[in-house]
Amino acid sequence: MTQDLRRFVEKTVQQIEGNRQEKDDLYEELLIHLDLSKEEFINAGLSDKEAEKKAMEHFGNETEVGGQIQQAMFPFRKEMMRALAIGSLLFHS
């Protein structure tokens, strides 16, 4: 696994607001997924470097994907935080 691939996954995981264990688990899952994708591109005839680049491109933009994972893991977090903030303001008024 190259540093480029690890940085790519780290940037994706940084978008997640989960605890350390959730982030570590996600990091490992994404590395495995990208490594498998890279192997498929290598089996299709690409060089190691080309396959890695193609795997990352195929996966998508790190920030966007991280945001989508965040939304999938915690779909109501923003709404809950907003409701708590409004409730707090109303309660203290």
How would you characterize this protein structure?
The protein is an all-alpha fold and 93 residues long. The chain has one domain. 81% of the residues lie in helices and 0% in strands. It has 5 helices and no strands. Helix 1 (3-13) packs across helix 2, helix 1 crosses helix 4 (62-73) and helix 2 packs across helix 3. The longest helix has 24 residues, at 20-43. The chain is elongated. It starts with a helix and ends with a helix. The mean pLDDT is 81.
Notable traits:
single chain, 0% strand, mainly alpha, 5 helices, 93 residues, elongated
Short characterization:
By secondary structure, the protein is mostly helical. The protein has five helices and no strands.
**Residue ranges: pLDDT <50 for 5 or more in a row?**
none
> Strand portion, in percent?
under 5%
> What is the N-to-C succession of helices and strands?
HHHHH
Number of spatially distinct domains: 1
What sort of overall outline do the alpha carbons produce when their principal axes are compared? elongated
Give the radius of gyration.
18 Å
Question: Helices, strands, pairings?
Answer:
Blueprint (H helix, E strand, L loop, with lengths): L2 H11 L6 H24 L4 H12 L2 H12 L3 H16 L1
Helix pairs in contact: 1-2, 1-4, 2-3
